[in-house]
């Protein structure tokens, strides 16, 4: 296992990097490597990477397994723990360094998001937006979390208000986040090409989100699918039936607590 | 042949007639067998395929094998079907198909009867097959077959009329309903055949005939992409084969009729070609007509029901009537 | 006015023209449809549920089986989503290979559509013509990745296999061949009076309705809405190529037909340029961690599949498996307009309209 590969699990965490950031990171990585080598030396053997790899759950590497005595094992576990601690520290440092080096530049869509929030607050209610962010990886998509009870009026506004004109609802998805359920709407305006992602949270015991089928016909089957697979009710939907599973199916398969009834599955 | 037909019916004559009709039955069955083979080959070539080539040399026994398969197949009758009608329907469809062949003259001497109302007989009998198709569709107790049967009824009625009226022109020109007389009215040169002077009638006849045959582009009763198989969706085994058989026998009949009415029957296309026997000319023209039907099938999409109806009533019928008028005026002015 | 008894007819799930196990319950008055209720789920395999227990590389073959007529674009939408989440760089050669296979796939998919559509309308030969020419594309894919229908070709960070020697030349030779064949298709079918009578003015809707129903692809463009994700939200390297987006005006089956035929020509144009610019050598896999673990967050990636906008919505919690994966399947969304279009049409037009929407049931049911 080369060092370069070991650093790799860090990679996903990285944002768009400025040269300074990268430099800081490289430095941090070098430090981490050094720390690890130190840990390795302390543990005193080539066996160390094996449990480390196992502990990290890194796929691919087949560790050389020997029959280990208890002492050896203990030493190894200790070494591994130390190494992990060292790495975590290095990572923290690297992140801190990166954060210090360059404060995140606001997205070019930030003004649009702020503007949208302002309009929604002005036209609907002060507490209509629960959270908001810019999903930078996703083409800087303005993402808003709308309070459940305001959702229908908000949807109407999003479609008809000249500021938004989101006439094209491209996707409706549901997700079970274990603490709560969520329905996510991706919409775009054909005329202005402005995109928004709207999330509506609902509680898990009695999940319910107002149907937007009267506003966008696209939502019709999508909502049925979410109802079918996640059990979220959509009051106001013209024909809320199961769509994928058979009508006598028990449970909602995509819920995280779903237990298949059929013994053969 | 003609001489025999005039003689009194003795046992010997009866035996001869019987023998001839059995021979003829086998000729027709042989035609059906090889028409199907021919169709599959022709369409195969048109579609960039090979067609049947596994059973026998060049796949010549493919249809025989298919018929054998149909014969030994389980004969199913749906439980909720009207049993007797279900059994009767293929028979009603097939018998008239075979019976109409009797009027067709193949050469000047080879014919089975010289009915003086030959054409009328043909038109009348071929309608009976429609009843079989409707019965089959109805008795199957299946919605698709019912729709197919009903479409068939509507289509037959709408196209039978222009079909018959389109040949009125020919009848007027030749002054007879007997098919032999009609052929004899045409000469040994292709410009003397009816299809040129009666061009409107000819076109209407061809279109209506294709429709009568339920073949592409008028194959609505069995439109496989809409009605799965139409009126014969519940039929299997030999009952299905009978519908199939009837369809191809009608093809034989229509191709012969077209040859007789419009393409000069057994006459040669050019005067110096008369040394070739008439039966060869008949077979050639007949084969061309059959080929034309296959050709259509390989190239045409299917017409829609409502368009079919409006086309039949609003275009074909007035055209065929117009043809009658034009012929009448022409005869009034030049022949009399 | 004569009224007949209403007939309840089950079209499907086993029916030759529902393009798979799809069912429509129609209420007929004679042959006129009073009400149509689509019923689906016969091909529901729970791809989204299965994906929650699989890592990203393992999900790719499952995407093949959604829209099995256009597996390459399905592959792409998933890897594109993951790559965007992980901010990965894709090598140039891999991008080109992806683009070429996606456009070839678009061509193959449209050819299947063309053939089956004509078969629906009752013409048998075009089906065989289309499949004969599609076979060449399938063979090209076969040579590239060893599969003819479900390719499992793309990977997060690149593609699995490099183009074998001479493959690009074969594609190059295929383009003029296909151009000639498209002319043949047009000669054979596009001017046929019966065919035109069958599709002109059938299944008509306006732009407003199309947008309201979230239609995409040719179904949206036939109303004149200029919306092609290859142009509007360029992904991959589409912005480097010059091509037109054909638009309709009437929003009927005829416009959809013309648009798809024209799209095939535009695809050939893109392919021509892509083959010209194809890099001589280079990597086909970018630098990708051994375990693909997108950072926590969510993403909605979408591309223009032959059927319309296919999207992948991924919620990641930083694990190797997606927490939630939802596909926006164009067939599923496009099909929603069907009950509205069918009212008042005849049985025959049901087949014409359904065929014109161009669905793949594997994708409807997912």
Structure description:
The complex is a heterotrimer of chains A (265), B (336) and C (366). Chain A has a domain at 110-205: 2-Layer Sandwich (Beta Polymerase, domain 2). Chain A has 265 residues and is α+β, with helices and mostly antiparallel strands. Chain A is flat. The longest helix of chain A is centred in the N-terminal third of the chain and has 32 residues, at 70-101. Helices cover 40% and strands 14% of the residues of chain A. Chain A has a 5-stranded mixed β-sheet with strand order 1-2-5-4-3. Chain A starts with a helix and ends in a 35-residue tail after the last helix. With 336 residues, chain B is mainly α. Chain B is 67% helix and 0% strand. In chain B, α3 (62-72) crosses α11 (237-261) and α9 packs antiparallel against α13 (305-335). The two termini of chain B are 35 Å apart. Helix content of chain C is 49%, strand content 13%. Chain C is built from 15 helices and 8 strands. In chain C, the strands form 3 sheets. Chain C has a 3-stranded antiparallel β-sheet. Chain C has a 3-stranded antiparallel β-sheet with strand order 6-7-8. In chain C, α3 (71-86) packs antiparallel against α4 and α5 packs antiparallel against α6 (167-190). The longest helix of chain C has 30 residues, at 92-121. The termini of chain C are far apart. Classes of the chains: A alpha+beta (265), B mainly alpha (336), C alpha+beta (366). At the A-C interface, β3 and α7 of A face α3, β6, β7, β8 and α12 of C.
Q: Roughly what fraction of the amino acids of chain B lie in strands?
A: under 5%
Which CATH top level class of the domain at 110-205 in chain A fits? Answer: Alpha Beta
> What fold name stands as the CATH topology of the domain at 110-205 in chain A?
Beta Polymerase, domain 2
Helix proportion of chain B: 55-70%
Radius of gyration of chain B: 20 Å
CATH architecture of the domain at 110-205 in chain A: 2-Layer Sandwich
**Helix percentage of chain A:** 40-55%
Largest interface: A-C, 47 and 48 residues
The helix tally of chain B amounts to 13
- Per DSSP, the total helix count of chain A is 7
What string, H for helix and E for strand, traces the elements of chain A in order? HHHHHEEHEEEH
- Gap between N and C termini of chain B, in Å? 35 Å
| Largest β sheet strand count, sense and barrel closure of chain A | 5 strands, mixed
Strand line-up in the sheet with most strands of chain A: 1-2-5-4-3
Strand content of chain A: 5-15%
Secondary structure: number of strands of chain B: 0
What is the CATH superfamily classification of the domain at 110-205 in chain A?
NADH:ubiquinone oxidoreductase Nqo5 subunit
Please tell me the overall pLDDT of chain A: 74
Q: Shape of chain B, please?
A: globular
The backbone outline of chain A, from C-alpha atoms, is flat
Distance between the termini of chain A: 39 Å
